[in-house]
Amino acid sequence: MVKMPDEVIQTLKKQNPVPVATASQNGIPNVALVGFLKVMNEETIMIADNFFNKTETNLKENPEIAIVAYDGYTKKSYQIKGHTEIKTSGPEYTAMVEWVNSVMPDMPKKAAVIVHVDGVYNSQPGPDAGKKIV
Predict the structure, then answer these.
(1) Where is the Pyridoxamine 5'-phosphate oxidase N-terminal domain (predicted)?
(2) Closest of 71, 76, 68 to residue 45, by C-alpha
(3) Which of 31, 53, 58, 65 is least enclosed, having the fewest CB within 10 Å?
């Protein structure tokens, strides 16, 4: 795992919804907009699975994920790549349930998707587009 720079974390914290990309074991891509996503620490992101269908299937087949962090004001953009664990019990799941309940108690709480950050990339247009930051 790698540590996300503070600027990336702050950009991600301001964004809602957040585009999240997955792919099936056969490489068929899927992008979903996620409303419940938060940074747990510099190396970990939590996503609440409220309504995942294709995303859930993809993560079970292929645990790799990509997340776009974009600041419309500064126009800075980053891509975060990582691998996931799906938790339906235990402390991470309990933390997700408490978090979702504090915002929208009637929202389904199927699972906590824990993202372990493997890399952060520059997604801004220009000569450094796609360059690995960490």
Answers:
(1) 4-122
(2) 68
(3) 53
